[in-house]
Design brief:
- It is a single chain.
- The chain has 379 residues and is α/β, with parallel strands linked by helices.
- The protein is 26% helix and 28% strand.
- It has two domains: 2-52 and 336-372, Urease, subunit C, domain 1 (Roll), CATH 2.30.40; 54-331, TIM Barrel.
- Strands 1, 2, 3, 4, 5, 16, 17, 18 and 19 form a nine-stranded mixed β-sheet that branches.
- α1 links the parallel β6 (55-60) and β7.
- α7 packs across α8.
- It is globular.
- It starts with a strand and ends in a 7-residue tail after the last strand.
- 50% of the residues are buried.
Length: 379
């Protein structure tokens, strides 16, 4: 067991100075002071550091993505150390445009590999197109029988999408929702939004005309353009959760878009960040000419939250909700995103300037005083 002493806890709500007892990968106790007289508990003095729930990235390309400029433009698989060094203790992998050279079974294998290496990892079945890719006989079967599957991904309003109709979206939503009911999961349809003029029109029809429960509809890349983001704010005001991409697809800095959304009356509890990390992006010169390839960064969730706090517009408690409790609620992960008794022992420790120093995942310290203590098997 591990006893963390003198932690300045944001759970995400501020709890002030607390001791946290961890055992068996879970949080066992949170008290003003916890003391043991025996040597069975290892103590670690946090010395007043900020301690938050481990960060959740609900949209990241763990087996790589890209490929729009041929096979050589495809990004490689992600490494465990890339996630740990930016505080990501829970990742949700997914496929992108490519459902041919990228396999849903390979995605599942990488999900299990990252789990074995030390973090929590989940996945969405499906990809950009119709019919959705799945491991078993259907999306519903994947939801029911594969623990790591939390929902299905599909693209809309994008020239690379399959231009799904309302009825086709509703039929996938039904599979996600019913599969979730049978497997005691929430179940979400994670929707890639592109540049087309239709924006989020279909999603409003699903909720307003077809009366589908909004909590199962999860749009991402909502900060791609201002017009799209204004629609997304309306969706959030209706009770939907909207996902702002931090690594790409943005009309302004993501932390500034959060401030804008709050000024327009959206609730901080309906906003999430995800990186779209490890996606393949073009590298352009100062004239906008293509000169090579780059990967979407995987650390921007943490860095954008840091910038949001530094802006003085949003406090630590609300800012960290974007990458802790809010994505946990969106995904239906009841034991993630919060520091509470019985929750998974996923923690990030930060200095007062919000510099990440320590990471604990499933009760094991993977980073100590900015130094990695655990790496992936082939790093």
């Amino acid at each position: 067991m591990l006893l963390i002493k003198n932690a300045n806890v944001f759970a995400p709500e501020p709890l002030e100075k607390k001791d946290i007892l961890i055992g068996g990968g879970k949080i066992l106790a949170i008290e003003k002071e916890i003391a043991f007289s025996t040597g069975i508990v290892r103590e670690w003095d946090a010395k007043g550091k900020i301690v938050t729930p481990g960060f959740i990235d609900q949209h990241i390309h763990i087996i790589g993505a890209g490929g729009k400029r041929g096979f050589a433009s495809m990004t490689p698989e992600i490494k465990l150390s890339e996630l740990v060094t930016c505080g990501t203790t829970t990742a949700v992998g997914l496929l992108g445009t490519d459902g041919s050279s990228r396999s849903i079974k390979s995605l599942y294998a990488k999900t299990k590999a990252l789990e074995a290496e030390g973090i929590s990892c989940y996945m969405f079945t499906g990809y950009y197109g119709l019919d959705p890719m799945h491991i078993m006989e259907s999306v519903q079967d994947d939801m029911v029988f594969i623990d790591n599957v939390l929902g299905c991904k599909i693209a809309i309003t994008d020239i690379r999408s399959s231009y799904p109709t309302d009825l086709e979206l509703l039929r996938i939503l039904r599979q996600v929702r019913v599969g979730g009911m049978l497997a005691s999961k929430k179940g979400i349809l994670h929707l890639h939004l592109g540049h087309l003029k239709s924006k989020m029109d279909a999603l409003f029809r699903l909720v307003e005309e077809h009366e589908f429960p909004i909590e199962h509809i999860s749009p991402t890349h909502v900060g791609r353009t201002k017009e799209l983001f204004d629609q997304a704010i309306r969706f959030a005001k209706m009770g939907g959760m909207i996902d702002i991409t931090t690594g790409a697809s943005k009309f302004m800095e993501p932390y500034k878009s959060v401030i804008y959304a709050l000024e327009q009356g959206a609730s901080i509890d309906k906003l999430t960040f995800s990186t779209d990390g490890n996606a393949g992006l073009d590298k352009l010169d100062e004239h906008g000419e293509f000169v090579g390839f780059r990967r979407a960064p995987v650390d921007q969730n943490y860095l954008q939250v840091k910038d949001l706090i530094a802006s003085g517009k949003v406090g630590i408690s609300d800012a960290i909700k974007l990458i802790t409790s809010n994505p946990a609620d969106n995904l239906g992960l009841k034991n993630k995103g919060r520091i509470k008794v019985g929750a998974d022992a996923d923690l990030c420790c930060l200095d007062n300037d919000f510099t990440l120093t320590d990471v604990i995942a499933k009760g094991k310290q993977l980073m100590y005083e900015t130094n990695l203590t655990t790496k992936g098997n082939f790093e």
